[in-house]
Design goal:
Elements (H helix, E strand, L loop, with lengths): L3 H4 L8 H28 L4 H10 L17 H14 L1 H21 L2 H12 L5 E4 L15 E5 L2 E12 L6 E10 L2 E10 L5 E5 L11 E11 L12 H35 L1 E2 L2 E2 L4 H29 L5 H26 L10 H11 L6 H13 L6
Parallel strand pairs: 1-4
Antiparallel strand pairs: 2-3, 3-7, 4-5, 6-7, 8-9
Helix pairs in contact: 2-4, 4-5, 4-7, 4-8, 5-6, 5-7, 7-8, 7-9, 7-10, 8-9, 9-10, 9-11
């Protein structure tokens, strides 16, 4: 008997260092996260303050960034770490993605040297938590329509608006907030650093979620928030700045979603081998084996694509539409695998005793955030036809 990864000889494509990183993260996930994830999911909570320093100690926060206390690992290594975290739960990988690929990347790419020195070492260690405020109640797939505004008032900025669906929002020490500003009569999107406790800045944790329950999600509100001149990320100019950060997060999802799919497959194969139906194991039936074979095939193809994109990213030649292709494929196939696995588990598949429906619920969000499946289809369509169908 082989595992789904052995079926495609995935290990042969990894370096010794990459295998060791994957092993280390998997061990941490198994010992520290997996024993509690069902309870966290059921309770709709996640102990971010407690877990973040442990993730930082492993070098997982901003691990693909260089300097300022960051690990400086390869893109492929980061992807493999995301895969092991999401094999436990998408909420855990989301916390790491938002911290490293969104908030820390924004500061690393667009912040001043003072910003980097102040925040990145603390965030890399998990002593400070960050969030990324782009999405608004009425503007998700069209972030360019955002209503949040920052206006000059002498040397200061006055920030007004709101953000929604913000991971880590209510526990963040620093929020990277994107707002429309005016520069020489033109509207320009810029990023601002807003520390927790700033007068006029409030957060509200969102509840009643059916997905990503083991993740902190919040609304951010800004009412005449006065920020000093140096709160702006000086190198951020235009919507391309936050979109560059989103591309980093999407890359992690290319690997991460497959971790959820792999966990569903592993769980289901073990269940099918031990569950007896009509006096023989469920795994011995042709229909069951056909389902498992098809799912393993899609997982393997997704894994090979993810590794290919990782190598391209490490070479500095990956294109945005290629990451879109990976995100679209991984999320779409992962949720299909989770749903199909549930059918093999039957009634047992709807309980928290097994991970498959929890993963399926989470993947509903992963399919949507960092660009919906439809948005990525249009990204690919534009690349193939050179015609913009967004408007």
């Amino acid at each position: 008997m082989v595992t789904v990864e052995e079926l495609f000889a995935i290990d042969a494509l990894l370096s010794d260092e990459e295998r060791e990183i994957r092993k280390t993260v998997a061990a941490f996930a198994a010992q520290r996260l997996r024993p509690h994830i069902e309870d966290w999911f059921e309770a709709g909570t996640f102990p971010a303050r407690e877990i973040a320093p442990e993730l930082g100690a492993l070098g997982l926060l901003g691990m693909h960034l260089d300097g300022y206390g960051c690990a400086g690992m390869s893109a492929t290594a980061y992807g493999l770490a995301c895969q092991e975290l999401e094999a436990v739960d998408s909420g855990v990988r989301s916390m790491v993605s938002v911290q490293g690929s969104l908030a820390m990347t924004a500061i690393h790419q667009f912040g001043s040297e003072e910003h980097k020195q102040q925040w990145l070492p603390e965030m890399a260690a998990g002593r400070a938590i960050g969030c990324f405020g782009l999405t608004e109640p009425d503007f998700g797939s069209n972030p360019g329509g955002m209503r949040t505004r920052a206006k000059r008032d002498g040397a200061d900025w006055i920030l007004n608006g709101s953000k929604m669906w913000i991971t880590n929002g209510s526990v963040a020490d620093i929020s990277v907030v994107w707002a429309q500003t005016e520069d020489e009569g033109k509207q320009v999107v810029r990023g601002f650093l807003v520390p927790a406790g700033t007068p006029g800045f409030s957060t509200r944790e969102m509840h009643r979620k059916l997905s990503l329950r083991a993740s902190i999600t919040a609304e951010l509100d800004f009412s005449d928030v006065r920020l000093p001149a140096d709160a702006v990320l000086p190198r951020s100019r235009g919507l391309g700045s936050p979109l560059a950060c989103l591309s980093e997060a999407r890359f992690g999802i290319v690997f991460g979603a497959l971790g959820a799919a792999r966990d569903c497959l592993t769980t289901t194969i073990e269940y099918a081998r031990t569950r007896e139906v009509f006096d023989k194991p469920l795994a011995a039936y042709q229909l069951t084996q056909a389902k498992l074979a098809d799912m393993a095939l899609e997982f393997g193809k997704g894994q090979l694509l993810a590794l290919h994109l990782g190598r391209l990213k490490d070479q500095g030649v990956v294109q945005q539409e290629q990451i879109s292709a990976g995100k679209l494929n991984s999320t779409r196939e992962a949720i299909a695998i989770a749903r199909e696995c549930r059918t093999i588990l039957g009634a047992n598949g709807i309980t928290l005793d097994y991970s498959v429906l929890r993963h399926a619920n989470n993947l509903e969000s992963v399919l949507t955030y960092e660009g919906t499946a439809e948005v990525h289809q249009l990204v690919l369509g534009k690349a193939l036809t050179d015609a913009n169908a967004f408007r």
